[in-house]
Specification:
With 191 residues, this protein is largely without helices or strands. 14% of the residues lie in helices and 11% in strands. It contains 3 helices and 6 strands. Strands 1-2-3-4-5-6 form a 6-stranded parallel β-sheet. Strand 5, helix 3 and strand 6 form a beta-alpha-beta unit. The protein starts with 20 loop residues before the first helix and ends in a 10-residue tail after the last strand.
Length: 191
């Protein structure tokens, strides 16, 4: 047996080789990659390694429950961000969130957002899921501009636990909408 410093390696028997854990991981990666012509492919025909790299670019961030009063500025520089969870904070504004044009899912639940703070969301054209429950959102039927226009690709919209007395007309224009949660609002009627 060959011994190396503790914590830096794993111990193997006479038939094995003793190597640091990081080298073992690299060897495993090289063995699973194969050469350029023998790379395994998935069901769609993509090379597995290429797909793993593509998947690594799809990032998400959660700053759930940090009592934030504003979204940290570095978040707005993550232009490849797909999922952002900023729920359970003390946000009153969404700042430059419109710069995150790759976002597909945005969770803003349990903050202090008013309807007027939502206008940057209209720039998120790839957004498919939007959670705005437990905020201070409302709709003034006399002024339909109080609730902003939302991206047309939204499939899931949660606006539960707010103060809507009517459903904003902009929601009624979302042609791809599949799920709408309006629970615990002050709705007098449905359109």
């Amino acid at each position: 047996l060959l011994l190396l410093p503790p914590g830096r390696c794993q111990l193997y028997t006479a038939k094995s080789i003793l190597l640091p854990a990081t080298i073992l991981l690299l060897i495993n990666l090289l063995l699973t990659m194969g050469n350029a012509t023998s790379q395994p492919r998935n069901k769609t025909g993509k090379k597995v390694l290429v797909q793993k790299i593509e998947n690594a670019k799809k990032t998400n961030i959660s700053v759930y429950g940090h009592n934030l009063e504003e979204i940290p500025e570095p978040v707005f520089q993550l232009t490849s961000l797909r999922t952002l969870d900023i729920s359970k904070n003390k946000l009153q504004r969404l700042g430059k969130i419109g710069q995150l044009t790759e976002l597909k899912s945005l969770n803003c639940e349990d903050n202090s957002l008013h309807s007027s703070a939502l206008s940057p969301i209209s720039k998120l054209v790839k957004l498919q899921s939007l959670s705005l429950g437990k905020n201070q959102l409302e709709n003034n039927p006399a002024n339909q501009q109080s609730f902003p226009k939302l991206p047309q690709k939204i499939k899931t919209l949660k606006i539960n636990y707010n103060s809507f007395s009517s459903i904003p007309k902009t929601i009624c224009t979302l042609s791809m909408l599949e799920k709408l949660d309006l629970a615990n609002n002050n709705l007098a009627s449905l359109p």
